[in-house]
Design goal:
The termini are far apart. About 30% of the residues are buried. By secondary structure, the chain is of the alpha+beta class. The strands form two sheets. It has a four-stranded mixed sheet, with helices on one face. Helices cover about 45% and strands about 20% of the residues.
């Protein structure tokens, strides 16, 4: 049972990650395994991105190194942030797509202390690697900035679907399964919104807050397998603590944009 639960969490994490990438890149082939490659040695901030896009070739090429390529080891399509140089003192970024088996790619295995559960991750080195396509929108505004939020929604939703399916087998009571079902329906509505309009941001805020509360009380609702749940679903309880400050600021901005004062909690 524990192995089944652990596998379900890993599969849900991967499913949410893949769905988030497809939300941002809807032309991704249906059968593709994808990786979203932004971070470098100093982090994911635009000023730290030194991987270079070289357009004086046909096709264009990239050179540089990426850290934390989630799903990169088996990926068939890589979406990579690359610099085209500075303008007005700002690093200008574009996303490019690269075939996972393109020449000039070296996968660098992570040391044990940088590995994360059962999800495949590696660093990547690109040496004049040809690209399949260049996305001409500003990479930070259109892809990098929204990715964390979109991934939060899809990963949370994927784990709730997995937990609902596990519910009967692991002793989750009827009310616990009903609460999960309600969250799944709400998450589905959020996932199909633009996540931009103030009312959509507030719906999203409500969904993630309710999900966080549900993680906190979930263990008490299981009649068996609680140790397995505690050990293997910790990511489910912790995922929404990442970028919490940014989500709170987005909530405040949504209330301000609506023309109403922020209600007191």
């Amino acid at each position: 049972m524990a192995a089944s639960i652990a596998g379900s969490q890993t599969n849900a994490t991967i499913a949410g990650h893949q769905a988030a990438i497809r939300r941002l890149f809807p032309t991704t082939p249906a059968n593709a395994i994808t990786a979203f490659c932004v971070s470098e040695e100093r982090g994911p901030r635009p000023r730290f991105i030194t991987t270079a896009l070289e357009r004086n070739h046909e096709p264009a090429r990239i050179s540089g190194q990426k850290w934390w390529g989630t799903m990169a080891p088996p990926a068939t399509h890589l979406y990579v942030a690359a610099s085209i140089g500075e303008r007005d003192g700002q690093n200008q970024l574009r996303m490019v797509s690269v075939a996972g088996d393109a020449p000039g790619i070296t996968q660098i295995p992570l040391p044990p202390e940088r590995q994360a559960g059962g999800v495949p991750i590696c660093d990547l080195r690109f040496e004049s690697t040809p690209v399949l396509a260049v996305f001409d929108e500003d990479a930070y505004e259109h892809y990098i900035k929204p990715f964390r939020l979109v991934e939060d929604v899809f990963s949370t939703l994927a784990m709730q679907i997995a937990l609902y399916r596990l519910g009967a087998a692991t002793g989750l009571d009827a009310s616990g399964r009903e609460d999960l079902l309600a969250l799944i329906v709400q998450g589905h509505a959020v996932a199909h919104s633009d996540m931009q309009h103030p009312t959509e941001i507030l719906l999203l805020t409500s969904y993630l807050r309710a999900s966080q509360s549900h993680w906190q009380r979930l263990n008490a609702s299981w009649s068996n397998a609680s140790d397995a749940l505690s050990g293997h679903w910790s990511v489910g309880r912790e995922i929404l603590t990442v970028a919490a400050r940014a989500r709170e600021q987005r909530r405040r901005n949504a209330w301000a944009a609506s023309g109403e004062p922020l209600p007191e909690d």
